[in-house]
Amino acid sequence: MLLQVNTKHQVANKLVQTTCPYCGVGCGVDVVQSGGMTGSLSELKGSAEHPANYGRLCIKGTHLLETLDGNKRLLKPVVFGQPASWDEATSIIAARMKSIIEQHGPDAVAIYGSGQLLTEDYYVANKLMKGFIGTANIDTNSRLCMSSAVVAHKRAFGEDIVPCNYEDLEHTDLLILTGSNAAWTHPVLFQRIERAKLRNPDMKVVVVDPRETDSCSLADLHVALKPGTDAVLFCGLLNYLAHHNALDDTFIQNSTNGFAEALAEASAWTVAKVAQTCDVPVAVIEQLFNWFASLPRAITFFSMGINQSTSGVDKGNAIINCHLASGKIGKEGSGPFSITGQPNAMGGREVGGLSNMLAAHMDIDNPEHHATVKAFWQAPNLITKPGLRAVDMFQAAADGKVKCLWIMATNPVASMPNRALVEAALKNCELVIVSDTAAQTDTLNYAHIALPATGWSEKNGTVTNSERRISRQRGLVEPMGEAKHDWEILSMVGRAMGFEEAFAYQHPAEIFAEHCALTAANNNGSRALDLGPLADLNIAQYDSLRPQQWPLSNTHRIGTDRLFADGSFYTPDGKANFVAITPRLPEQQTSAEYPFVLNTGRVRDQWHTMTRTGNAPRLLKHIDRPWLSIHPVDAQVLDVKDGDLIKAEAACSGGIEVILPVKIDDKQRRGEMFAPFHWSATWGSHARVGALLNGANDALSGQPELKHGAIKLSPVAMQSYGLVYGEETLVNALQSATYYYLNTLTSVAACIEIADQRDPQSMVAEVIKHLPKDAQWATLQGPHQLSIVVTRKNKLVLAILLADKPTDIPRDWLDSLYNGDELSPEQINGLLEQQPDDAFLLGKVVCSCFGVRENTIKQAIAEGNNTVAGLGKALKCGTNCGSCKTELASLIESTSAVSKPHLKEETTNEYAL
Ligand SMILES: Nc1nc2c(c(=O)[nH]1)N[C@H]1C(S)=C(S)[C@@H](COP(=O)(O)OP(=O)(O)OC[C@H]3O[C@@H](n4cnc5c(=O)[nH]c(N)nc54)[C@H](O)[C@@H]3O)O[C@H]1N2
Ligand SMILES: Nc1nc2c(c(=O)[nH]1)N[C@H]1C(S)=C(S)[C@@H](COP(=O)(O)OP(=O)(O)OC[C@H]3O[C@@H](n4cnc5c(=O)[nH]c(N)nc54)[C@H](O)[C@@H]3O)O[C@H]1N2
Ligand code: SF4
Ligand SMILES: [Mo]
């Protein structure tokens, strides 16, 4: 009998593998594709065999498919406000750019790109600018992210190389997380660390962060240091190692330069002086130093709390110095581990996508490298000098020197410091081109030409993760609308500018092959980045490329797990360099007028400016609003309570008002405030945190100091507070009626939180003007609140719930009433009285995957389920993506009142240094 083959099923369902587009962990993702490239995607899971994640995903990765909303996409090119064809758009860009170059020279043109571009996109952008247009004015948001680590690597190792790999995290004795909240920002690595500690309970984890973050759930020690003092801490460690017989003299002798000078500079930093300067108890410092000196293996995992600093490069080298001195590098479970933020920041570094790099880890000022690249590209206009770095690029645009700025895959109006300057720069430019996937961003508001780019699931190419592993991001569906790939758009413009041959690409495989060939050109072992063995892949081989770690051996095509294992480095004499460090304070210092430190960063479920994660309602459940966290003692002094609005001002605000709801938080130091930077003007009338940071940056790396602003605060008195919830068009119509709003979208309806200087009663007239004619409405006015509930055929259309003080009405409750069912009279009354029923009083959702709420969890803990695994068994929470496990652990800790013996003491901290 013939076996019946169900061909329909085979065509319909295919398991495809790709890579998550968010963080630098670079997790492999499996998706079921139904109906081919024009079909649909479902059943997204972590790839079991991908070495970055072995099947795990965090919450952002898990909910990727929910972010692909076509309504939020830019679908057609728009040129000076009018829809245009691609030919029109690219020929206008080429003509305008050529005329600007003719009049003002190539440096009047700039590209501001992104670590979220694929390697192929990046390669073409870099080649076009540096080889053909003839300017190095191509920089990226990676400047804001890891440029300090790049310079620290180059100074110490001779090349921008991250020596460690993820497995090292599982084979170490001491893991220091410094300036990293990995539990929220690199969650899959954090899960790997968690598992490693379970397997080896002797492994020590130390968190160095002014705030007690969720990452502390795993910490044996939390060093809550005064912000900006990490270089002091690591200089002190170097000094301690020298005095405690913990140096690797042979390694220092054979493999390094400059030890004596570095130690001499660090010798002033005794434990007592470190403790005093970092404002941490002596016992805490001693414990950390003792562990580093005595445990055989140690990793220092560092991120934005180190890099985003005016002395970020020095901090990186202060860390590397300690690893070189103790020989804790190039060995399993040891090394300085700079963790990258964006999915392809590493790929960008590989192609040379920053303004001070040439290409393929080759240098602008090296004549041999220059000759190699010139010949390889057949470049008519190869650059001879570095270009502008991000902050300077926007300054140059504001000064009229840069006249054409092409912004690609980044949202600088929201994410750069000194928003006032960035806005002025874009207003001043003759031509602003923005390539984005989203239809609305703060930056698109300034675009003369908006170009729709393909996004994740459509894009096709490669990315490199934090451990140098190259993976494929595969095209799974056809581009939405008229969107084109970034490399395609750049190539079209390149051809329209007359460089037909150099930009004739038809497929990303051709670009990848060319990039790999360039890394191998005249290399002969002089650069670790040698992808030569991949330079001859054809399209089919490229399509089936499996994750690869570089450097690649010519014979075996396998990655070298750990670099520097042989004690040799990529400097001219093959030795690593110690760098003598004199710690410096942050430049944005507090003063009598601006007395508070502003720290900024990330939350667990949002990605940057929320153009993607903001589309997934589930990702807004963990935290649904911006905030400014304030220590309870400061709150008392400022006379503010949870939910009150507070205005933040900095010397550089430039008239941009920033107003945020207060969150009282005793997990940070007095005098220091924290705000997430995710919410932008697209998400709220006054959520523009970048306006509070002045753009001060590291002279060596150009990386801005985003963790240390100086601000003053004043409570904002409003007469009315509340929210408007319901049909999107009605809610939007009411935005104009509000002075202040936060904008969040729930699963089914639109919702804005508002505050207004008018009292609730006098707002009514304004509100009623907008009510739909075909609807019924009921109001209830009490002494302190006013509600309007609008229904159509008894179904909820709009609810306006106002009060004379901040309210906290659960969005989920409103969602459940807006489900298309008729409302009961009790439900309408509940709404009018602004009183949710019992089911909604169970607290916020902690586990978004299974919708498990805080109070349910606390109840279960009280009943004896005081392990994360136990809670998972009882309630399922934490058993899918696992992102909430750290929060479950903190709930267990706070609820069961059995706290770990953290080596922490109350210290009194003054505001000023
Ligand atoms: N959920 C989520 N994950 C992300 C991202 C996201 O947007 N959302 N973005 C990705 C990107 S691009 C990046 S760069 C990474 C960033 O990842 P992280 O660097 O982990 O994230 P941040 O929240 O910016 O900052 C980390 C911590 O630095 C601390 N810090 C501030 N000042 C100091 C200091 O002086 N010393 C020390 N030691 N610590 C300090 C802050 O309190 C904060 O907890 O996250 C990546 N992952
Ligand atoms: N205050 C403060 N500011 C910060 C930071 C901080 O800690 N504090 N962190 C800094 C850091 S580390 C980073 S990395 C930056 C991140 O800041 P941004 O890069 O500005 O943030 P994103 O929201 O990721 O912006 C990416 C944009 O590209 C679009 N996009 C997505 N995919 C594609 C694509 O394939 N092609 C194109 N053309 N567009 C695409 C998105 O819709 C979005 O508009 O923020 C920096 N700014
Ligand atoms: S940790 Fe999360 S955001 Fe980062 S790559 Fe993995 S799934 Fe994506
Ligand atoms: Mo970043």
UniProtKB/TrEMBL annotation:
<dbReference type="InterPro" id="IPR006656">
    <property type="entry name" value="Mopterin_OxRdtase"/>
</dbReference>
<dbReference type="InterPro" id="IPR009010">
    <property type="entry name" value="Asp_de-COase-like_dom_sf"/>
</dbReference>
<dbReference type="GO" id="GO:1990204">
    <property type="term" value="C:oxidoreductase complex"/>
</dbReference>
<dbReference type="Pfam" id="PF01568">
    <property type="entry name" value="Molydop_binding"/>
</dbReference>
<dbReference type="InterPro" id="IPR007419">
    <property type="entry name" value="BFD-like_2Fe2S-bd_dom"/>
</dbReference>
<keyword id="KW-0408">Iron</keyword>
<dbReference type="GO" id="GO:0042128">
    <property type="term" value="P:nitrate assimilation"/>
</dbReference>
<keyword id="KW-0500">Molybdenum</keyword>
<comment type="similarity">
    <text>Belongs to the prokaryotic molybdopterin-containing oxidoreductase family. NasA/NapA/NarB subfamily.</text>
</comment>
<protein>
    <submittedName>
        <fullName>Nitrate reductase</fullName>
    </submittedName>
</protein>
<dbReference type="InterPro" id="IPR006657">
    <property type="entry name" value="MoPterin_dinucl-bd_dom"/>
</dbReference>
<keyword id="KW-0534">Nitrate assimilation</keyword>
<dbReference type="GO" id="GO:0016020">
    <property type="term" value="C:membrane"/>
</dbReference>
<dbReference type="Pfam" id="PF04879">
    <property type="entry name" value="Molybdop_Fe4S4"/>
</dbReference>
<keyword id="KW-0004">4Fe-4S</keyword>
<dbReference type="InterPro" id="IPR041957">
    <property type="entry name" value="CT_Nitrate-R-NapA-like"/>
</dbReference>
<dbReference type="InterPro" id="IPR041854">
    <property type="entry name" value="BFD-like_2Fe2S-bd_dom_sf"/>
</dbReference>
<dbReference type="Pfam" id="PF00384">
    <property type="entry name" value="Molybdopterin"/>
</dbReference>
<keyword id="KW-0411">Iron-sulfur</keyword>
<dbReference type="GO" id="GO:0043546">
    <property type="term" value="F:molybdopterin cofactor binding"/>
</dbReference>
<dbReference type="InterPro" id="IPR050123">
    <property type="entry name" value="Prok_molybdopt-oxidoreductase"/>
</dbReference>
<dbReference type="GO" id="GO:0016491">
    <property type="term" value="F:oxidoreductase activity"/>
</dbReference>
<dbReference type="InterPro" id="IPR006963">
    <property type="entry name" value="Mopterin_OxRdtase_4Fe-4S_dom"/>
</dbReference>
<dbReference type="Pfam" id="PF04324">
    <property type="entry name" value="Fer2_BFD"/>
</dbReference>
<dbReference type="GO" id="GO:0045333">
    <property type="term" value="P:cellular respiration"/>
</dbReference>
<keyword id="KW-0479">Metal-binding</keyword>
<keyword id="KW-0560">Oxidoreductase</keyword>
<dbReference type="GO" id="GO:0046872">
    <property type="term" value="F:metal ion binding"/>
</dbReference>
<feature type="domain" description="4Fe-4S Mo/W bis-MGD-type">
    <location>
        <begin position="13"/>
        <end position="72"/>
    </location>
</feature>
<dbReference type="GO" id="GO:0051539">
    <property type="term" value="F:4 iron, 4 sulfur cluster binding"/>
</dbReference>
